[in-house]
Amino acid sequence: MTSKLSIIVLGASGDLAKKKTYPSLFDLYSHGYLPENVVIMGFARSSLTNENFRSHLVPYLGNSGGEKLNMFLSRCFYYSGLYDSTQSFSSLEPVLTKLENENLTALSNTNRLFYFAVPPNVFISAASAIKSSILSTSGWNRLIVEKPFGHDYDSAMTMTSALGALFSEDQIYRIDHYLGIHRMEI
Q1: DSSP for 104-156?
Q2: What is the rounded average pLDDT of the residues 99-122?
Q3: How far is CA 72 from CA 4, 124, 129, in A?
Q4: Domains of the chain: residue spans and CATH
Q5: In the list 21, 73, 124, 168, which could disulfide-bond 17, CB 3.0-4.6 Å?
Q6: In the structure, what pLDDT confidence band is assigned to residue 167 with cuts at 50, 70 and 90?
Q7: Closest Cα to residue 97, out of 137, 130, 44?
Q8: Which of 147, 129, 141, 150 is nearest to 171 (CA)?
Q9: CA–CA separation, 79 vs 76, rounded Å?
Q10: What are phi and psi of 53, to 5 degrees?
Q11: DSSP 8-state symbol, 79
Q12: Which helix (H) or strand (E) holds 75?
């Protein structure tokens, strides 16, 4: 691999992140599907230190423990900020860049994946703040948007249009828990 990878998890202190997102990232990491020196930055409103955040994650990462778990946790960092604040993401940017450069120095491009484990009402404002302040300039940028993506067709289309004004379709991946289920009338 010739590129750096940072995964920024928005909503990192919430239930979705601790019960699903971080256990999935740990599974990917422990099976070699993530680079060994990946930077995983948790971003949320809660005021936590890196150590508090890592302790917060441990009960959800399974019983395997050991060296792989310690290696994974050493890749996990935390930053407190507001989801809709360009200033919060602007102040995170140098912190993230420093971690990328310390941990991933021999690699050229920096790729950033932003994982939205936040309420749908902040998707667009968070995406806008990210776009204006913390995108990689030397690699790709992707958004994974997870949660109910609207509450009906019209609201989903409104969100799609707003995200599409900020990012190209090949930069956005949506995971929707509910819209895939529909009621059939017989």
Answers
A1: STT--EEEEEEEE-S-GGGHHHHHHHHHHHT--SSS-EEEEEES---SSHHHH
A2: 84
A3: 16, 30, 28
A4: 3-175 (3.40.50.720)
A5: 21
A6: very high
A7: 137
A8: 141
A9: 10
A10: -65, -45
A11: E
A12: none
- Quick one: what percent of the chain has pLDDT higher than 90? 67
Kindly report which listed range (36-45, 68-77, 151-160, 166-175) carries the lowest average pLDDT score.
151-160
How confident is the model at residue 64, as a pLDDT?
A: 67
Q: Are 57 and 18 in contact (CB under 8 A)?
A: yes
Q: How many CB atoms lie within 10 A of CB 114?
A: 25
DSSP states along 149-184: --SSHHHHHHHHHHHHHHS-GGGEEEE-SSTT--PP
Q: Hey, what are 155's tokens?
A: 């609201």
What average pLDDT score do residues 150-163 get? Answer: 85
How buried is 131 (Cβ within 10 angstroms: 0-12 exposed, 13-18 middle, 19+ buried)?
Answer: middle
HSE at residue 54, side-chain half, CA atoms within 13 A, is 14
Cβ neighbour number for residue 59 with a 10 Å cutoff: 9
Q: What sign does the dihedral 3-173-91-28 (CA atoms) show?
A: negative
Q: Which residue has the tokens 């969100």?
A: 159
